[in-house]
Structure formats: structure tokens, C-alpha cells
Design goal:
The protein has about 190 residues and is mainly α. It has two domains: about 1-80, Rna Polymerase Sigma Factor, Chain: A; about 110-185, Arc Repressor Mutant, subunit A. Helix content is about 75%, strand content about 0%. It has eleven helices and no strands. It has helices at about 1-5, 10-30, 35-50, 60-80, 95, 100-105, 110-115, 115-130, 135-145, 150-160, 160-185. Residues about 85-105 have low confidence and may be disordered.
């Protein structure tokens, strides 16, 4: 990042290639929407570009980048709480389609899904269990388990003391064990 701040445009390309996938993965696990995750990932890198001249080494670049992404995710989640959601049971274009419900317009892909049911179901259960955790525990699990970050890096990203991060991680894992016990025999 320091090279990029000094005018080396290739340095940004290197940063982008190195961090795009892990950052996109992190954002997706926070917002659970692929299109929003992609937009937030691009917005994160846009903010890196805007901060080019102001960048100061106060933390590892990785933790600074993930903190930007985390703040964008939190903003998006706050905005989404105020939006109404369309039910799949509402009448879709009732005059044109005779009152067919939206869920009837969604194609049935059950034959394709049957090939991967057990794996997909377990993944969905795990994702649901993680999503059910309180926000800080959810965040710590994602950063620790899916991004492989150290407790100290998570503490830098979240602005929490390292002891709190360790405690949140432990509590989250205990909750996940209880939630997932019937699926994995814990």
C-alpha cells in the first residue's frame, strides 16, 4: 500500500489480486447475498483508492482493508433492516397470469439438488447456525474459521480487546456445538 501511495499503480493491482477473493468471501458470509457482496467488495477497493494519499501505517494492510469492508457490511445490514421484503406467496402480476404466486414461477430444480442433498443440507445448517449467532460472535467465527485470521488480527479489525475476541470465539463455538450436535454427533 505504501508503494501504491507513492504512485506505483502496479502495487494496487497486486493488492487487488491478493485480497479480492478472501475479501469477497468475507463480505459474502456477512451479507449472504452474492450481488451485494460483489458491490461491497468493489466499494471497499474504491475506498482504498480514495485513501491512497492519506494512508498511514497504523495496522497491517489486511486488517485495515477488512475493517473498511466490515464497516460497509454493517452499513448495508442497517439499511436492509428498514426495507420491506417481497413474500414468495404474494400474487405476481395477477391480471396477466391469473393470480399465480411468485413461488410457482420459480423453476423446480429438485432433481439437480438431490445429487448433493446431504452436503448442501449440512452446509445450509452450518451457515444458518453461524448466521443465528449474535453479530460479534458471527463476525469472529467468520474471520477466524473462514478467513484464518489470528485473534490479534481480529482484534485489530473489530477494535475489540484480544481477550474479548477469544471469549467471543469460545462462546460462539460452544453455541455452535449445541446447535449442530444432532447433525455431527457432538
Amino acid at each position: 500500500m505504501l508503494s501504491y501511495s507513492d504512485g506505483d499503480e502496479d502495487a494496487f493491482e497486486m493488492l487487488y489480486r491478493r485480497y479480492e477473493k478472501p475479501l469477497l468471501n468475507f463480505i459474502y458470509r456477512m451479507v449472504m447475498n452474492a450481488a451485494d457482496a460483489e458491490n461491497l467488495c468493489h466499494e471497499t477497493f474504491f475506498r482504498v483508492v480514495r485513501a491512497k494519499k492519506k494512508y498511514e501505517v497504523t495496522a497491517l494492510f489486511k486488517t485495515w482493508l477488512f475493517r473498511i469492508a466490515l464497516n460497509l457490511c454493517r452499513d448495508r445490514v442497517r439499511r436492509m433492516k428498514h426495507r420491506s421484503h417481497l413474500s414468495l406467496n404474494v400474487q405476481a402480476l395477477s391480471q396477466d397470469n391469473g393470480g399465480i404466486e411468485l413461488q410457482e414461477l420459480i423453476p423446480d430444480t429438485s432433481s439437480d439438488l438431490m445429487k448433493h442433498v446431504e452436503t448442501d443440507e449440512l452446509e445450509a445448517v452450518v451457515q444458518g447456525a453461524i448466521a443465528s449467532l449474535p453479530e460479534e460472535e458471527h463476525l469472529v467465527v467468520i474471520l477466524r474459521e473462514y478467513q484464518g485470521l489470528k485473534h490479534s488480527e481480529i482484534a485489530d479489525i473489530t477494535n475489540l480487546p484480544i481477550g474479548t475476541v477469544k471469549s467471543l470465539n469460545h462462546r460462539a463455538h460452544e453455541k455452535l456445538k449445541r446447535i449442530l450436535a444432532k447433525y455431527v454427533g457432538v
